[in-house]
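Journal club prep — side note

Before the paper discussion, L.F. wants everyone to see what a predicted structure for a comparable chain looks like in token form. Sequence:
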Amino acid sequence: MTVWVLLSLAASGLAVGFLSGLVGIGGGVLIVPLLYFFYGHPAWGGTPLPEALHAVVAHATSLFVIVPTSVLGTWAYHRVGLVAWRAAGPIAVTSVVAALAATRVTPSIPAPALKLGFGLLLLASGARLLRAGGAVPAPDARPRLALAAVGGLAVGALSALLGVGGGIVAIPILVYLIGLPLAQVAGTSMAIIVFTALAGVAGYAAGGPDGMPAGSVGYIHMVAAVPIMAGALVAVRLGARVNQSLDTERLRLLFGVVFLVLGLRLAAGNAAAVAGML
């Protein structure tokens, strides 16, 4: 791997960290496509990898990067009282169980179908947030933690299957099921991601096939993970500080736009694959 490739990965990590801290997602939505490109172009990346392993290695490596990034982001929010631990706890517990289970069955589940379904969920959530009047529950809405704990199963499963921290699932749960004030959503989401991503990393690190690149732990490709992680750790606190400077209305619009962009990307990219499976 050349110095240019290492610098490119680190620069990408800066964007990952900033987005993670700003919105409260792990950053896997940026890391995974980057790693798809990285493994799909071994002449550039210098890392030949069997094509059958591209997805699972990208997902596992993404989760490894997400763990320290989300820890640092959570601490930045916790210091200013913007992590609702009572809301994070039930979701984190069930998400850990689901993430550990999902790492064992990833190869047998059609990821395009999951991605398409989740993309549609994001589109609906984004449209609702952007709708005039902002259909967001009042801050004193009664917490529905039992339902949130069930939702945590989706957080953990999709986190491990798709290589994301789970924040893009956790945020709608925190907003619509719990009615958490928007100012606390990003920090609480980051706290959930810490436990979910750590469980996924443990599952993927426990086993790995032949053909993995040197310096790998299980399915986790450490050589690619470290430079991305370095950039992300530099930028995550900056993203959190920018988030804290925004008012509630701007946060509502920010979350809505992010949901729509991610939802369109997931839905458009997987609709044809799902149609071909039918």
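L.F.'s comment for the group: The chain has a mean pLDDT of 83. Keep this in mind when we get to the figures.
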